[in-house]
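Appendix B, record 7
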Amino acid sequence: MHDDQFRQLLDRFNLAWSGYRKVRKGVKKRISRHMQTLNCPSMQAYLDLIKQNKEALRECELRLTVSISRFFRDRQLWDGLEEDLLPGIIKTHPRRLRVWSAGCARGEEVYSFKILWEHLKQTHTHLPALEITATDKHSAYLDQAREGIYTPGSLKEISPEMRERYFKSRKRGNRFNIKAFVKADIDWKVQDIFAVPAGSEFNIIFLRNNVLTYYKQPLREEGLCRVTKALIHHGWLIVGSHEKMPAGVSNFRRHASIPWVYYREA
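Structure tokens (predicted):
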């Protein structure tokens, strides 16, 4: 598949070439296989088919999704959460903490937060009640997240001690299963970021490597606006380490030491 053909497909979904440029090789392979399965000899034939066939459209969207993650990805963020952000938030909100992972994919980010929370129990005598909502528009990803089975590559940032405490090694397939107590009390929901938010009054929202990377500018602003409506005033928005807030967004202040964490001022 030539890049100009791939751009045609991206344009169909208002997706940004800049976001896909470095990862397009694998995505193009997935789309090419789908085209072959559907006997589509050209990109135009493929575009015509997914316009008419809802199941093919859903499969196309799934194959366009880039889900590259691992536990504690961008370690600086998680160290900053543990040492700075969360202790301050806990003091301000001692009764309840609401967290939303928007576009949670296979769950590594959500479980990273739960592991971090378990770790905080060792240094804090009282923690607020934790409510975590995890959403993704692909139900297949959510099924995998609920199951909580991961390859060694996803655990690169996990120490042997943490692996022993929070994971069970599976006898077959060289896989690791997140333990049941880490899985507990997570509300998994199928939800599109561009639809109605998954709740309200969240203290922390994770929106990482998603809207601000893969969508064109108008949709970036629309998706960001929809998501941040669910954030409390003086709440925290966490984006990807290579993502930037749109130029027109003025009510967020960047964290002093973690540049991809933003504080909502109003």
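Remarks on this record: The first helix runs from residue 3 to 12. The radius of gyration is 19 Å.
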